Amino acid sequence: VADPLSELDIYARALADADAPAPAGGADELEKVEPPLAPAKILIVDDRIENLVALEAVLAPLGQPIVRATSGRAALQRLLREEFAVVLLDVRMPGLDGLETARYVKARERTRHTPIIFLTAFSQEIEEVFRGYAAGAVDYVTKPFEPEVLRSKVGVFVELHRERAQREREAAARGRAEAVAVAVRKVQSVSDVALAHLELDELLSELVDRLRQLFGADSAGVALGDSPESLRVRATSGLERRPQATMTEPGNLISEVARSGRAQSAALDSDSVLAHESLRGLGVRAMLAVPLLTHERPLGVLYVASRGEDRFSDEDSALLELCAERASTAIAHARRYEAERDLVELLQRSLLPQKLPRVERLELAARYRPGGRASSVGGDWYDALPLSDGRAALAIGDVVGRGVRAAAVMSELRHALRALAIEGRSPGRALEQLNSLMVVTHGHAMVATLLHVVIDPWRGKATFASAGHLPPLLIEANGAARYYDCESVEPLGVIAPGPIPEHEIDVPAGSTLVLCTDGLIERRGETIDAGLKRLRQAVRDCPSDLEALCDQLLARLIGESELDDDVAVLAARTAAVASGPLNLSFPAEPEVLRDVRRALADWLAEQGAPGELIEDARLACSEAAANAIEHAYGTSDHEFQLHAERHGSRVTVTVRDHGRWRSQRPGGGAGSGLVLIEALSDDVVIDRGSDGTLVELSFDLPTSKKAGRGRGRA
Amino acid sequence: VVEVVHKDTRAELTLAERRGIALVSLRGEADLANVDKIESALAAISDDTAGVVIDLREADFIDSSMVSILFDLRVRLRRRRRKLRVAAADGSPIRRVLELTGFDRQTPIDPSAEAALEALSAESAR
After folding, report:
1. In terms of CA atoms, which chain A residue is nearest residue B67?
2. A676 neighbourhood in chain B, CB within 8 Å
3. In what order do the strands lie in the sheet with A379-386?
4. Calpha distance A497→A257 (Å, rounded)
């Protein structure tokens, strides 16, 4: 047909034609005078001529007319005028593709029951198979196809058509013809899209229920196992009570079918060994069993059984085989899904740190709970890594999506972030680079939120950057809790390239940072803010033990309820009281004085000493060290020691040298070093021994915020 | 014109002339490690000026050895009837050192170099 009709035109015309009587063409009249059987025409649709030629070669032995169409539109036009026993439809075609073509065919009354077999490349996604069934396909053949298999499949429909055509001529047989049409339609119920989304056990029990209805049988069942020995009846419907675990007895029909790989129909007497154990003594007289195969490998057996006298017919057998094929796709899918879920869970667990690292002055604890529903294996993860200078990198994230792919992205992010953090990238810069990595690797197909914190427990500082993640919660030593809200940046994979803002916050000694994923706080019908508020309330009476805090959070926020989503929590707490004493040795040279002052000032800052005290102590200590350096002239041991320790609120700094105490420097300021030491320290002890001099300076830390230093000013 | 008269890894000493007064500014830290150099630099300052202002507002740290040098400088200038004033911010650690060593009892401390120059000009005019 030359005129370029749009798909809609064709469709509209198809609807208009639907109930009009067929034009009295010569062909129709000729057919009527032909003896008993009208030919069962086969319509083959493919945009590639070579495929059409190949199909014709395969189907020729069936001895039926074969009609070619090279597009969905051409096929629809043929279907408007002619009746076909079966349509073989290529899924991938330019213009109107196979799925759309099928929908038009199914929408039209006259062609609604014309069986469609889809042809597609072997590598097609399983979902596409189900989409095909949803579009009304009765079967699915992957290319390259086995000629024998394809021919027998098409043969089934040719037979059904011929049978129907024959009976249609006999008014008395009209009912039966309709029944066949109904049966064809019912095959589709076995390949229902809904089945694809069930877990294996639900799928099997739904399947056997439908089979029993479809065949009007008294019993239907499915046994799974990749060899006759490992067969197990997994689900039954009707007569059989809960099936026994294994097929111990040999020679039953199910085992036979599994062994031979061929369908078998049998008549049974009351104590036939053909019935497996759980089917015995139930008065079953006829049984039909067919193999379940996936990619030519045995998967199990499908069977129906009846108390009626009649054996199951060849037609029943063909129908059950068709059902078995459909079912095996769904079963294989469900099994693969189950296996994948187990794999993802394993993968995810292996991606989380087995043990959190030991970081000095930083306590770490974490929890992970997978989502309770089978379909909920998500992409939550966390990580903790010690960095140089006593810092640590913390990360928590959520890869949007599920399954192996999400877990793989999680792994990429984790390892890349580790490398960036070790390299010394700041959190904002690291996230910026991770974003580029995500986009380069996955385009914009993958999205992940991430909160990255570099914490310095020695300085009591933390720097963080967030890409669409929940803000960190800080619990101070006194129990006060607040969020550090930051500008809302979109998740990785979505953000435009460019700098990601980072924030520096104080994490004073004894304070706790809580990082979590939204599974911990998100509830249906609730805003994120409400969830954040609940988390803040849940850290009340924060336990001194960090592990106990994590347990408390899970108990208070989740409790026993079933999780929709995964939950990850990572908590970090800076040491409450600063580290142990300071012990350093310096060469007795004036150049080290600055290092002495810096070392002491840093150590005092760790103790939480106020700035004013730090100024005083570093000057006093510098003077003591300067004395030690001057004493050292002319001695063999050109070193002195700096020691500082804390007892309660008192800090004691000791400078010990190995020379002899000398008179003060000459000049107008004579003795001012010692004057300073005495004026600046709360207590001074100078011990001039024969082997050196020890200067011990003491400073009192303010015990409360109100009490100032109260140091006298000269 | 500002002239750098001393520079090491931790301190820098600059000299400028303002209204016939030598303005010497110390930046960084001065301790036993570099006071000898600082002292030499101060000794080289010309006697032509009416007086000297030492600006310590940009200094991060001075210890007793630096204070000793200031004491010596004051003595040396007095012999030539020249004045010395020091600038250090009120309440700063530097000011505290000058106070604790008693330096402020002999030499006036001003909160800024400007105030010190002003006061010194006024003194000289009398």
Report:
1. A669
2. 63-64, 97, 100-101
3. A379-386, A392-399, A448-456, A461-467, A503-506
4. 61
- DSSP, res A667: S
- Nearest residue of A to residue B11, measured between CA atoms: A594
In this predicted structure, what is the pLDDT of residue A666? 47
A25 CB neighbour count, 10 Å cutoff: 10
| Structure token digits, residue B21 | 């007064």
Average pLDDT of the residues of chain A:
80
Cα–Cα distance measured from residue A397 to residue A430, given in angstroms and rounded to the nearest whole number: 14
Give ipTM to 2 decimals: 0.93
Token code pair at residue A587: 């060469």
For the cut 60, the answer to whether the pLDDT of residue A334 exceeds it is yes
Which has more confidence, A461 or A390?
A461
Cβ pair B63:A619 closer than 8 A: yes
B residues 93-112 closer than 8 Å to A (CB): 93, 96-97, 99-103
B73 contacts chain A (CB < 8 A): no
At A218, is the secondary structure helix, strand, or coil?
coil
Contact predicate B68/B62, CB 8 Å: no
Residues of B within 8 A of A680 (CB-CB) are 100
DSSP state of A151: H
- The DSSP 8-state label assigned to residue A359 in this structure reads B
CB A455 within 8 A of CB A513: yes
Query: Residue B96 to residues A465, A711, B12, B63, B104: CA-CA distances in angstroms?
Result: 41, 11, 21, 11, 10
Mean pLDDT for the stretch of residues A252-258:
88
Show Cβ contacts of residue A617 under 8 Å, excluding neighbours closer than 6 positions. A600, A601, A604, A609, A651, A653, A680, A681, A697, A699
pTM, two decimal places: 0.41
Please check whether residue A587 is in contact with residue A638, taking contact to mean a CB–CB distance below 8 angstroms.
yes
pLDDT at A175: 56
